[in-house]
Design brief:
361 residues; alpha+beta; Trna Endonuclease, Chain: A, domain 1; 2 domains; 5-stranded mixed sheet; 17 helices; 13% strand
């Protein structure tokens, strides 16, 4: 053994055991969330004091669990856990092998007799190769045949949950059904970049499950934070009317939380300026998301004397920068002219983003 081989052995061993640890953490999270769903359904059906909580059950439960220090148990997540339990009964076959939970889960039944087992993907593969975020995407699909298709293809192709989301959004199931040469289409899809098990550790549900803050593990967020810090200072130093209002501004729509990276009010333009930073290349989804934010602010935050809000999207990939303005609804010509004078130009923002990324490396 030479020195180079010694280092190689360390790297290989690290990779193997890191992957094993990540898979174990991920499977524990999946089974925990499934059991949380079981407890909710069991209580709804047999809870002695269920009537006292009724429709407020999940809201009350979310508040109580949060007070007790359990992470990732918001009302929205509890709703997901309940749906997860009902949609994936095969995980009961894994729970029964955990002796520490036998007494706790005495009422846990095996697969329902009327459940069509031919529509079940193997539970061992589902729990080791998919993350809970995969299941969040899969639970949006009501048709069992369609859901099974995406489960199988996710396993075969080692898809990340982003890849799964993209294939669902582009109707792969329907396109496959309409294709004469189905296998060629699927081989083309499966030829995309594979999903490494270590990437599971970046799943936001894993962070909450382990009680970690994002920056403790995922260093890309440090870069994002630094860019936002400097961008905030940069805009205020322009001296053209930017007034800082909020960082990571959140708002709730239909029990789902949304977040805007930076929010300013421009005292000269008399409008809100929303800024969203993307650590990747620009996509049409980014424009749609910003348009959604602008519509929300136009309906709920804009005063009678305000002009329509303005959105700025900054996207970076390597040393390139793309800056997109979302200016839908700015039909007042005078306002548009003032907007062009008062806001930083696209070139200024590109230059800022490129130079800041160089400094932060």
């Amino acid at each position: 053994m030479d020195y180079k081989k010694l280092v190689e052995y360390f790297n290989q061993t690290q990779a193997v055991f890191q992957a094993k640890a990540v898979v174990a953490i991920n499977q524990s999270l999946i089974l925990r969330n499934w059991l949380f769903g079981f407890y909710i359904v069991e209580y709804e059906q047999n809870g002695k004091d269920y009537a006292k909580h009724g429709e407020r059950l999940l809201y009350n439960l979310a508040d109580e669990l949060k007070r007790q220090g359990i992470k990732g148990v918001s009302y929205t997540n509890l709703t997901l856990f309940r749906k997860f339990y009902l949609g994936y009964p095969q995980f009961s076959l894994l729970i029964k092998d955990i002796p520490e939970l036998n007494l706790l889960n005495a009422n846990l039944q095996a697969l329902p007799e009327d459940f069509k087992t031919e529509l079940l993907a193997p539970h061992e593969l589902l729990s080791t190769l998919l993350s809970f975020t995969h299941f969040v995407e899969l639970l949006k699909i009501d048709d069992p045949h369609q859901r099974l298709f995406y489960e199988i293809e996710s396993i075969k192709g080692s898809w990340s949950y982003r890849q799964l989301h993209r294939q669902i959004a582009t109707s792969l199931y329907e396109r496959t059904g309409l294709s004469v040469d189905k296998q060629t289409l699927l081989k083309q899809i499966q030829g995309e970049q594979k999903f490494a098990p270590s990437e599971l550790i970046r799943d936001p549900y894993v962070f909450e499950f382990l009680g970690l803050k994002m920056r403790e593990v995922f260093r890309e967020k440090d870069l994002e934070k630094a860019l936002l810090d400097h961008l905030q200072d940069f805009l205020l130093e322009l001296g053209t009317g930017f007034c800082f209002e909020a960082r990571q501004k959140t708002f709730l729509i239909d029990n789902r939380r949304y977040k805007i990276d930076l929010l300013f009010y421009h005292r000269i333009l008399k409008c809100h300026v929303l800024i969203d930073l993307k650590m990747d290349e620009f996509t049409h989804e980014d424009a749609g998301q910003m348009n959604f934010y602008l519509n929300y602010f136009r309906s709920h935050e804009m005063q009678d004397t305000d002009n329509p809000p303005v959105g700025i999207i900054l996207c970076s990939l390597k040393n390139e920068a793309v800056v997109k303005y979302a200016t839908g609804g700015l039909d007042n010509r005078l306002f548009v002219s003032r907007y062009l004078l008062q806001l930083p130009s696209e070139e200024q923002l590109k230059h800022f983003l490129i130079e800041e990324k160089k400094k932060l490396k």
